[in-house]
Amino acid sequence: MIVGVPDETATDETRVALTPPVAEKLVERDVEVCVASGAGEGSDWADDDYRDVGCDVIDDREAVFERADVICQVRGLAANEGEPMDPYYEGQIVVGTLGPFDLADESYDALADRRVSAFALELMPRISRAQSMDVLSSMASIGGYKATLVAAEQLPKLFPLEMTAAGTVRPAEVFVIGAGVAGLKAIATAERLGASVRGYDIRLEVKQEVESLGADFVELDLETEGSGDDEGYAVEMGEEFYEQQRKELGRVVPESDVVITTAAIPGAPAPELVSAEMIEGMDDGSVIVDLSAPTGGNCEPTVAGETVEHEGVTVFGPTNLPATVAHTASQLFANNLYNFLDHLLDEGELDLDTDDEIVDSTLLTHDGRIRRPHEDGGEEPADDETDDGDAEPAEGEADA
Q: Closest by alpha carbon to 53, among 8, 17, 22, 74?
């Protein structure tokens, strides 16, 4: 089996799917690894680093696709927004973040026509044996950490309490909205920097996690039953709920020097939680970092990929903070990806068993079929099957 690592084509992407230490583990298992020249430069891995561990470095990017049985990418398909589909060939396996919620029907059709098996790692189920493969959690942790540093650098105040001969410096007030992986990391980082930190989430069950990090949990007078799904993700609530939530948040946001928002719903626009009116109540020089900017943002003035100023408050709308910590982010991503491949490897080949929950949850297309595991309706029939009900169900289809 040959694993290929092309260089990433998105302009803001500096990560690489496999680092040399992780590639070496594959080589030691008699898996060939070919890497596009320069693929690791953005994350401080030179071509010679790959050669030293037994990888074949190829100058021509397209040659990686032609040669490899398995393509490993940080961002492919819809996750590589604005770029044409890469030249996947017949029967190839693709593993990476692929943007399944935004993938167009034409892309699904093209993958099925080429009989590509496409694994979207964003759809990794939240079960204990898949934790080591969870790229979303790994990247969200880095995003939460970096969001706090961005805010600390921009804020014209110190984060920690300082008792000095010149007087007492009060700690910065940091408010984190959303207590998932990114939010909890932002809370932990702000606490380490000495700020006075508060956290909020519509899921009251995370209160203990927030408080265990030393922050105060903000409880709003809201009915939150049904706000989380079985996997721990927040679910979309009605507009009446969000309107009441904004009223409640309106008394907390203006008291804050820094607001970091992380509230996101898989496959849906981010809920707008912080209004322009709330921001106008904040002191001049205050900072907002909106980590939900890629899906519309939690703050009314947020512009994805831009930094704007609203009534003296700086609002950051970053879209790829993990890429600003590329070396560490690549290490974590590569480890997640290796653990996924290790789960599938059987005597040097990948065993795509759709009865396995990890495979079933992440496999978008396979053997000419469009599966869409993240959508209601399940697997679509292959083009060569009739609609008269006589066709035999595909593997796993009967159970669905």
A: 22
Q: What is the DSSP string of 314-325?
A: EEE--S-GGGGG
Q: Determine the average pLDDT of the residues in 311-335.
A: 97
Give catalytic residues, as residue numbers: 126, 131, 134, 137, 233
Contact 68, 116 (CB under 8 A): no
- Residue carrying structure tokens 């626009």: 269
Residues 245/219, Cβ–Cβ less than 8 Å = no
- What separation in angstroms does the CA of 261 have from each of 149, 370, 381? 14, 35, 41
What value, to the nearest 5°, has the Cα angle with vertex 22 and ends 19 and 23? 80
Cβ-contact 351, 36 below 8 angstroms: no
**Does position 102 have pLDDT exceeding 70, yes or no?**
yes
- Identify which of 330, 323, 261, 326 has the alpha carbon closest to the alpha carbon of residue 295: 261
Which domains occur in the chain, in start order?
2-123+326-370 (3.40.50.720), 140-319 (3.40.50.720)
DSSP state, residue 224? -
> Residue 71: in which H helix or E strand, if any?
strand 70-75
Mean pLDDT of the 287-302 span: 97
How far is residue 51 from each of residues 23, 33, 316, 341, 348, measured CA to CA in Å? Answer: 10, 10, 40, 21, 21
Tokens read off for 315: 């609002």
Spatial distance between the Cα atoms of 279 and 356, rounded to a whole number of angstroms: 47
DSSP 8: P
CA distance 66 to 369: 22
Compute the residue count for the chain.
400
104-142 pLDDT per residue, tens? 999 999 999 999 999 999 999 999 999 999 999 999 999
pTM: 0.88
Structure token digits, residue 263? 């509230």
> Which DSSP letter does residue 220 get?
P
Q: Where are the beta strands (DSSP E) in 112-243?
A: 117-120, 162-164, 167-169, 173-177, 196-200, 216-217
Q: Is the pLDDT of residue 389 over 50?
A: no
Instruction: Tell me the one-letter amino acid at 186.
Output: A
Q: Residue 74, SS3?
A: strand
